[in-house]
Design goal:
- The structure is a single chain.
- The chain is about 10% helix and about 25% strand.
- By secondary structure, the chain is of the alpha+beta class.
- Strands 4-3-7 form a 3-stranded antiparallel β-sheet, with no helix packed on it. The chain has a two-stranded antiparallel ribbon with strand order 1-2.
- A hairpin with a 4-residue loop joins β5 and β6.
- It is globular, with a radius of gyration of 13 Å.
- It starts with a strand and ends in a 9-residue tail after the last strand.
- Bound molecules: zinc ion (ZN).
- Zinc ion (ZN) binds next to loops.
Length: about 110
């Protein structure tokens, strides 16, 4: 199992999935640890994706983007900043990398 942390490098907490009702985002997001991400990427590091349902683009931080680049199927869902909630990624997911037709999460 690759080592994981929260986006700021701190240990994963049991309550990280709790939703902040102000933003709709989780309290914290799990990423591959910095050491794990340093092993190299199998996809380009892309920070913005488009939600096909609303057309809105969300930009994420570097640790999350590098986790997708290192292990594209790491996440089962992601946040839409316009809808302010999470939707699935993957082959049947609702997101493409901004400016492409390439699905997020595969
Ligand atoms: Zn959306």
């Amino acid at each position: 199992m690759p080592k994981t942390t929260l986006t700021d490098g701190s240990p994963v907490t049991p309550d990280h999935r709790e939703i902040d009702t102000q933003t709709g985002m989780q309290k914290g997001y799990v990423v591959l640890s910095e050491d794990e991400r340093a092993k190299g990427f199998v996809r380009p590091v892309r920070q913005s994706y488009r939600h096909m349902k609303c057309g809105g683009v969300t930009t994420m931080g570097r640790a999350l983007a590098e986790t997708y680049a290192r292990q594209p199927n790491f996440y089962s869902g992601t946040f839409c900043a316009i809808c302010r909630t999470h939707f699935p990624v993957g082959a049947n997911g609702e997101f493409v990398w901004d400016g492409t037709d390439e699905r997020v999460g595969i």
